Amino acid sequence: MLRHLMRITTGSSGSPPLLINTNNFSLYSSLTFHSHHTHSQMDHPIPKGTIIFSTVGRSNYGFDIFSLQLQPQQPTTLGPEHRLTDGISVNFNAQFLDDNQTIVFVSERTGSPRFYLTRPGFSSPKSLPFVPSSLFHDRPVVNNDLIYFISAHEDPGRLFKSWSALYSTRIDQLDLTRLTPLGSVDYSPAISQSRKFIAVASYGSRSWGGEFHELNTDIVVFPESDPDNRVTVCERGGWPTWFGDSVIYFHRQAEDGWWSIFRVDIPENLKLSGPPNTATRVTPPGLHCFTPAAMHDG
């Protein structure tokens, strides 16, 4: 969540500009209002002047998903890019299924975020179950005819508390099961190679602390068959991704200020003998790195 600034400057001498700083806007904008008046106009002021503002928002644009064939024998040679989505709507958070040909992703082509599945040969993507009342759907994962995803449709009952939680449903019908404990907040689910474990970036049961540059989430893992058995494997981290069943990569801002990729080793059967494990930094300072993805075949 980014910062919103409003500055109002008057023409009266000795009147300092008024600066209002609010943190409840999702886009950055600035507004300056210059007002000019005389004493005769004070009784019946008429607004005059110019309002200047800026925004990064656009009403219509395309944001697409692409695939690129890797060539291990020629790592410096890139193959052609293939666009997998329609080119006119907003599409994001694609995940491969087991066959590495089919993808599941989020699209806003209907005006609100929904889940879709597509593969080579499909004339149009297949719509998957979603929660109509949710304004936020995130990072869908399909496993054994179930789709796991983040939704924000259940009111937590108090201010400054995120609505985001992890749910699952059958891929052919909406039959929701909440996997995040009531009162807790989860983001960005990822499932291990064996499909036995799920990792999330969890905010826990805390209310929002006011941070917007980096959310204070922890990496939490639990068995797919026992979602109440949650283990915090590393503090401070977001966007987990699995390598096999024993390693998780994630991103966070390092102490030197650079966003970097880290890894943490997962003990067998999630049995920790002490506090959460210490993470190992993977990417060097001097380069911002986000949203890692790990390949299971090395």
Distance between the termini: 35 Å
> What is the ordering of alpha helices and beta strands?
EEEEEEEEEEEEEEEEEEEEEE
Structural class: mainly beta
| Name of the CATH class of the domain at 129-281 | Mainly Beta
Strand order of the largest sheet: 2-1-3-4
State the total count of DSSP E strands: 22
| The CATH superfamily title of the domain at 129-281 | TolB, C-terminal domain
Shape: globular
- Give the amount of beta strand, in percent: 35-45%
Rounded to the nearest angstrom, the radius of gyration is 24 Å
Number of helices: 0
Give the name of the CATH architecture of the domain at 129-281: 6 Propeller
Mean pLDDT: 82
Low-confidence stretches: 1-41
Amount of helix: under 10%
Tell me the major beta sheet.
4 strands, mixed
**Topology-level CATH name of the domain at 129-281:** Neuraminidase
Layout of secondary structure:
Layout: E1 4-10, E2 18-22, E3 30-35, E4 51-53, E5 66-68, E6 81-83, E7 91-96, E8 103-107, E9 114-118, E10 126-127, E11 137-143, E12 146-151, E13 165-170, E14 177-178, E15 185-191, E16 197-204, E17 218-223, E18 231-234, E19 238-243, E20 247-253, E21 259-265, E22 280-281
Parallel strand pairs: 1-3
Antiparallel strand pairs: 1-2, 3-4, 5-6, 7-8, 8-9, 9-10, 11-12, 12-13, 13-14, 15-16, 16-17, 17-18, 19-20, 20-21, 21-22
